[in-house]
């Protein structure tokens, strides 16, 4: 496993020195032996804290080898790993730490350390269980009112304490690890609901193991028949997906299991690194595949362009997180690269269906995994059952009850149909969740509610399913329109949207919007009798206006 140690002018990767320009910077090489030693030392430190079996430890950091070390160490000693998205706001960070009752949080990068400091200062969240902050890199975490029980420990100190404990009792780590049952929770990921705060999704070691075994079985022998790499043991993987997402964490764990050489880079640099690393394995959300496809289409020699842009060794490719356009899959396939696509959700650990190297349809998301049962409800909703499906949400019996039908089938919220040869096709999304081309799940209602009771705005409708970023339609209040000039109204609306954007994570912000001249009314069929917005009808009626916000790219 290799970290990108270039500073590259970005705080997210502020590690080490810069030995070259662009994608030619230095790499920090971590062998499997070193990786294992770090996990043992970190796990031994956590046992010393003590982090007891079943207690939660969170990670708030950019991708790094240390991120994976901490995650696997938490799991090895029976703790529950809680990843927090680096793009989270301080309020979101505080919520996850408080709701999960996290006892330890690992933090990396100066920016995230500052976000954590602000999160620790959020007044209405109980963070009394948080007793340890571990700082990756050379970052400092300070708050003026730090409780006396809360310690801040540097990463070198963690490793040193852990190694000292191992020397005192060399068998302690192994005893602790082998005592963890497969039925114990391993991770808890926070996923967006249709409204309200995110929900904690605990997944057991068994949930994840069953799903991983199915995944490997479906994709063999493609995972093992790649041409030999020059100087590399196993296939080469370019990993940029956030480890805080189950897609990225799953890719890293797969690389660990299959012995890949994994290069860790950040999202901003991934396309620059492809021709340098020349990966054989590449997994991504649709937005990156679409950028590559666009570059290939613009070139006079598309095949040569594809080889030049990717390094020419792509062998196993996966797209997930959101639906990928069929034209993109067909373009890559025409040049000898099969993009495998599946379907799932966090509550299912996460994969339910997969296209296979030897059985695929580009108009589908594949067939059910061997351990998964799927059926369609009377209204077409996809229902799932199997050993990879979670048992229920953390501290939320009401949401748990609503997630399953009377017979124990998981309600996915998506509408589907099966082809005559058993492939699943997604027809519609029942629940009001937008999934961007970057794989981010965003409940539009959570954003729209921030404009409730706004004196200038009657309705905001957020749009962006399958798109690179979110946009919105804005319907001003009639009295606001009558009380000021058009120029003044535009300025006030821009001010209101900027105010809300400042409260959101970057992927939730509204990049563009249009101002409608006709109000939404019950008579127009765009509001319900209780005056709620009919989202799908608004999308259809204003289809051209929403589409125009994406014209010309950008944002």
What does this entry look like structurally?
With 555 residues, this protein is α/β, with parallel strands linked by helices. The protein has three domains: 31-180, Rossmann fold (3-Layer(aba) Sandwich); 208-429, ANL, N-terminal domain (Rossmann fold, 3-Layer(aba) Sandwich), CATH 3.40.50; 443-548, 2-Layer Sandwich (GMP Synthetase, Chain A, domain 3), CATH 3.30.300.30. It has 18 helices and 25 strands. The strands form six sheets. The protein has a nine-stranded mixed beta sheet with strand order 2-1-11-10-12-13-14-15-16, sandwiched between helices. It has a five-stranded parallel beta sheet with strand order 4-3-5-6-7, sandwiched between helices. Mean pLDDT is 90; it is low at 5-24.
Layout of secondary structure:
Layout (H helix, E strand, L loop, with lengths): L1 E3 L22 E3 L2 H17 L7 E5 L4 H12 L3 E4 L6 H10 L4 E4 L2 H11 L11 E4 L15 E4 H14 L3 H7 L6 E7 L7 E6 H15 L16 E4 L6 H13 L2 E4 L5 H8 L3 E4 L1 H13 L3 H9 L5 E4 L6 H9 L4 E6 L6 E4 L12 E2 L4 E4 L4 E5 L11 H7 L6 E9 L5 E6 L4 E2 L5 E2 L1 H5 L8 E7 L6 E7 L1 H6 L2 H16 L8 E6 L19 H7 L1 H6 L7
Parallel strand pairs: 1-11, 3-4, 3-5, 5-6, 6-7, 10-11, 10-12, 12-13, 13-14, 24-25
Antiparallel strand pairs: 1-2, 8-9, 14-15, 15-16, 17-18, 18-19, 19-20, 21-22, 23-24
């Amino acid at each position: 496993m290799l970290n990108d140690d270039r500073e590259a002018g970005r705080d997210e990767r502020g590690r080490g020195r810069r030995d070259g320009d662009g994608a030619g910077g230095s790499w920090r090489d971590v062998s499997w032996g070193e990786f294992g030693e770090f996990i043992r030392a970190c796990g031994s430190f956590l046992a010393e804290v003590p982090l007891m079996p079943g207690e939660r430890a969170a990670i708030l950091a950019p991708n790094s080898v240390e991120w994976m070390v901490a995650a696997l160490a938490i799991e090895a000693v029976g703790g529950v790993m809680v990843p927090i998205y680096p793009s989270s706001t301080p309020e979101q960070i505080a919520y996850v730490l408080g709701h999960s009752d996290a006892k330890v949080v690992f933090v990396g990068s100066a920016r995230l350390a500052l976000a954590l400091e602000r999160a620790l200062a959020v007044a209405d969240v109980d963070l009394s269980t948080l007793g340890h902050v571990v700082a990756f890199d050379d970052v400092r975490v300070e708050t003026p009112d730090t409780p006396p029980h809360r310690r801040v420990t540097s990463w070198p100190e963690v490793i040193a304490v852990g190694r000292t404990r191992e020397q005192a009792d060399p068998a302690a780590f192994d005893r602790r690890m082998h005592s963890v049952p497969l039925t114990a929770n391993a991770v808890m990921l926070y996923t967006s609901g249709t409204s309200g705060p995110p929900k904690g999704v605990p997944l057991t070691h068994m949930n994840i193991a069953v799903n991983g075994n199915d995944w490997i079985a479906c994709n063999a022998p493609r995972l093992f028949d790649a041409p030999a790499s020059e100087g590399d043991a196993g296939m080469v993987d370019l990993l940029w997906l956030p480890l805080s997402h189950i897609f990225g964490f799953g890719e890293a764990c797969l690389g660990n299991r299959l012995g890949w050489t994994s290069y860790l880079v950040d999202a901003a640099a991934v396309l620059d690194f492809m021709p340098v690393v020349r990966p054989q394995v590449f997994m991504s959300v649709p937005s990156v595949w679409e950028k590559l496809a666009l570059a290939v289409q613009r070139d006079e020699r598309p095949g040569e362009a594809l080889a030049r842009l990717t390094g020419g060794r792509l062998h196993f490719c996966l797209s997930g997180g959101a639906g990928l356009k069929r034209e993109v899959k067909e373009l890559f396939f025409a040049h000898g690269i099969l993009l495998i696509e599946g379907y799932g959700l966090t509550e299912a650990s996460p994969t339910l269906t997969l296209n296979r190297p030897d059985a695929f349809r580009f108009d589908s998301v594949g067939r059910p995994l061997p351990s998964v049962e799927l059926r369609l409800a009377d209204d077409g909703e996809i229902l799932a059952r199997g050993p990879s499906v979670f048992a229920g949400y953390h501290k939320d019996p009401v949401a748990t009850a609503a997630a399953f039908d009377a017979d124990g089938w998981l309600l996915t919220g998506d509408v589907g149909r099966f082809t005559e040869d058993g492939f699943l096709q997604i027809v519609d999304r029942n629940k009001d969740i937008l999934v961007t081309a970057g794989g981010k799940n965003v409940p539009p209602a959570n954003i729209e509610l921030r404009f409730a009771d706004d004196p200038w705005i009657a309705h905001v409708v957020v749009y962006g399913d399958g798109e690179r970023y979110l946009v919105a339609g804005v319907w001003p209040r009639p009295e606001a329109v009558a009380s000021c000039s058009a120029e003044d109204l535009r300025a006030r609306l821009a001010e209101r949207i900027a105010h809300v954007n400042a409260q959101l994570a970057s992927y939730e912000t509204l990049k563009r919007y249009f101002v409608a001249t006709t109000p939404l009314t019950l008579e127009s069929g765009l509001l319900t009798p209780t005056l709620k917005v009919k989202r799908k009808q608004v999308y259809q009626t204003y289809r051209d206006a929403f589409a125009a916000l994406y014209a010309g790219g950008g944002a």
